[in-house]
Write a structure and sequence with these properties.
- The structure is a homodimer.
- Chain A starts with a helix and ends with a helix.
- Chain A has a three-stranded antiparallel β-sheet with strand order 1-3-2.
- Chain A is mainly alpha-helical.
- The longest helix of chain A has 29 residues.
- In chain A, about 70% of the residues lie in helices and about 5% in strands.
- Chain A binds a DNA duplex through α4.
DNA sequence: ATAAACTTTCAATAATTATTGAAAGTTTAA
DNA sequence: TTAAACTTTCAATAATTATTGAAAGTTTAT
């Protein structure tokens, strides 16, 4: 496999994974492109490389910046804006996990908590609703908490050895 | 909040979460409905409760069975097929994690491995592609391995205490 | 102040994905 | 074997989501 082919394969696979996760394809592809680029890229560069429109590029870059994954890089003497992405995968994971937790998991935990807190009127179906949503609530909360802990703290010897144990 | 309202809220929230994950809304809602039901439900029951068509119900039930989350329950003397879902959240998580790993994560690991294995021609951009996809490969593989470990093994004292530590 | 260089916005359109419903298929009972 | 009871399939359609491109907006240099 040659460089160009490998690059395209990486970008399109990463893009596909993104859309599978509710992150849109263009957004994932822009991130992928920046991730393997050796230098900051302009909007023009990105449009050309991925063959997407100016508007699309602009909107998705802004989203990536909202997420905190991509930042502007001003190059002295240049009028254009250039962009770079976080290159450390550990840090990237941390940001993504945190953002997904905030946007997706937290609201679900809230609803599960509300639903599982309805008054028990003694009927079998109410009991079941309470019991099952409570179980889901606890699980979701634990999983989310674990994810944040694992991912937030820079790896110290303890987490390192735990991961070793589990891996 | 009354039972009916709580039920609807749960089903629609769960459905929304599903679509956020690339699982379609109807599929997630059917699972949610079965999850809080006190008895097996027929296709008719599901169609009526969720106001979706027969075809839609049939297809999505089949998908849920493919995933191993829902099973047919034959009721003696009844002609119709009835359905139930796994009620233990721990087990549900195990099944879903395994399935997502198989369908989504594994193919990505493979591509990352292929891409990061291209021949190093000495150029800076090739080096960067190899380095970054390798980092992503390792991370993805570790995360996937951890997920499987955490989720596959029934909780014994060790994992329980690790979770306590992390939570 | 003006214009060139660039970015953002957003209504229109295209692409994708989900849903319907009716015809075809299957199973069971008599 | 026939017909009723039920399920599956799939082409058509609807709903949703992504993308374009040109007009409006902004910033910088002169």
């Amino acid at each position: 496999m040659k460089y160009e082919e490998a690059k395209d394969k990486f970008i399109s696979t990463w893009g596909g994974l993104g859309s599978l996760w509710g992150i849109n394809k263009a957004m994932a592809q822009i991130q992928a492109l920046l991730f393997i680029s050796t230098k900051p890229l302009s909007m023009e560069d990105i449009m050309e490389e991925l063959k997407i429109s100016r508007g699309n590029t602009s909107m998705n870059l802004r989203q990536l910046m909202d997420w905190g994954i991509v930042t502007k890089q001003l190059i002295p003497g240049e009028r254009k804006e250039y962009f770079i992405t976080e290159k450390d995968v550990q840090e990237l994971t941390r940001i993504i996990a945190k953002e997904r937790s905030r946007r997706e998991i937290q609201p679900v935990i809230k609803v599960l908590n509300d639903v599982s807190s309805i008054k028990d009127d003694g009927s079998e179906k109410t009991k079941e609703l309470i019991k099952q949503t409570k179980a889901l609530h606890d699980l979701t909360q634990n999983a989310d908490g674990m994810l944040n802990k694992l991912v937030t703290q820079k790896h110290n010897w303890l987490t390192k050895s735990i991961i070793k144990l589990l891996t």
